[in-house]
Amino acid sequence: AAAAAAAAPSPRRRPLSTAVDAPASVTPEQMERDKRYAGTAEVPESLRRGGGGGEGGGGGGEFSIRGQSKEGRAVYLDMSATTPLDPRVLDAMAPYMIGSYGNPHSRTHMYGWESERIVETARSQISSLIGASPKEVVFTSGATESNNMSIKGVAKFYGKKGKKRHVITTQTEHKCVLDSCRSLEMEGYDVTYLPVQRATGRVDLNELASAMRDDTVLVSVMAVNNEIGTRQPMEEIGAMCRERKVFFHCDAAQMLGKMPMDVNEMKVDLMSMSSHKVYGPKGIGALYVRRRPRVRLDPIFSGGGQERGLRSGTLPHFLCAGFGAACELAQKEMAYDTEWIGYLSDRLKRGIEEKIPEVTQNGDPEHNYPGCLNYSFAYVEGESLLMALKNIAVSSGSACTSASLEPSYVLRALGVDDELAHSSLRFGIGRFSTEAEVDFVLELLEKHVARLREMSPLWEMVQEGIDLKEIQWSQDAH
């Protein structure tokens, strides 16, 4: 069955050559663009079969995927951590990296006017993607800064008189959100960390309603979780916050450009965005700040008062241009990318669940972003599996906490026990991912999970039919 499914034509199958079989929804212009970036070289057998570069492959051949040449490098399936720069985004940035060097805040000469025009064009491109006004987009260095600005800025502005000093967030937010809330707690603010539903990782709307108080100033919930891909009920949360006159902040770093969004339909008041999650350059992000009804926040930087006084500092206009170009591409090709990523995600998911026993998908399989899959492989230690998969770039959780040996706090919040949390891997699929890469990952996963389990006494007991839950394990007295 698996072989038949793998052989079936994909909805927008990207073969190992320049030919592209696009769905009916794809325009001729998009097909031409796809052919340009598809590359001409077939994926070599060394990649697919484990030859050439040593065990597991990936080191002996060269192949191209839509403008990205790979030679002797691991297969990249960590798109939730960061995405490669789209070559067309680089094309959009290049003219402004040398030729246009004026300060965009210099209003007295043509060099400044030229750079300002570049920035404002990018602002319009970003606002168009999210259904906002360009005047509501504030440039930052990334989503981490945007999250800090939103949480600390709103709480401090409205908490000055001591009336609005309560913030609500969830236990599965990005670390920068949780740390911003802890920083507020040290200053005397009250923060409620809502648990999430154990089966799905979604917010319980009844618990959120119960947590709101008269002094609640802000609710901060991420749109799509960066570790498990779960999508929160943003429209319902936004409506609830608007009704209670509570500001709603959304970390949309993992959703921007990947799923349709409209800030007015979601009723968000502040929304954090990141360029490098949407095939744009690193070092640039944005914060949506609603103008009507107006949201006020204290700036966290002191300086020249750029960006409507909310974020001081000279803007890198060429990075702004790259971010804007990435958003424009995402808006034009979202349906195209969604279909391709969904197809590859189903291929990977089906392969894992059919070829490898005792696996568990973490998160909500229904309300999720398909490009982020998180699986736990029972009776396998996660770090050992990562080391075995040296020719595949995946992660065991958020890139921001990947140096920690502790199990993922996101999986803990879902009720996943430490052993399974330690055995989890996150797979990130994106615009440049290919069928060959997914098949290669499945091949190595099946091989190395089986090999590592052969060394596990617990796996041997399970194979013999022993119920591990019935065993009374002895405890060392000291």
Structural features, described:
By secondary structure, the chain is an alpha/beta fold. It has two domains: 2-85 and 334-463, Alpha-Beta Complex (Aspartate Aminotransferase, domain 1), CATH 3.90.1150.10; 87-329, Type I PLP-dependent aspartate aminotransferase-like (Major domain) (Aspartate Aminotransferase, domain 2, 3-Layer(aba) Sandwich), CATH 3.40.640.10. Helices cover 39% and strands 13% of the residues. The protein has a seven-stranded mixed beta sheet with strand order 4-10-9-8-7-5-6, with helices on both faces. A three-stranded antiparallel beta sheet has the order 11-12-14. It has a two-stranded antiparallel sheet with strand order 1-2. Helix 5 (110-130) packs parallel to helix 11 (317-355). The radius of gyration is 24 Å and the shape is globular. Keywords: Iron, Iron-sulfur, Metal-binding, Pyridoxal phosphate, Transferase. InterPro entries: Aminotrans_V_dom, Aminotrans_V_PyrdxlP_BS, Cys_deSase_IscS, PyrdxlP-dep_Trfase, PyrdxlP-dep_Trfase_major, PyrdxlP-dep_Trfase_small. Residues 49-62 have a biased composition (Gly residues). It is an enzyme of class 2 (transferase).
Summarize this entry quickly.
Belongs to the class-V pyridoxal-phosphate-dependent aminotransferase family. NifS/IscS subfamily. The protein contains 16 helices and 14 strands.
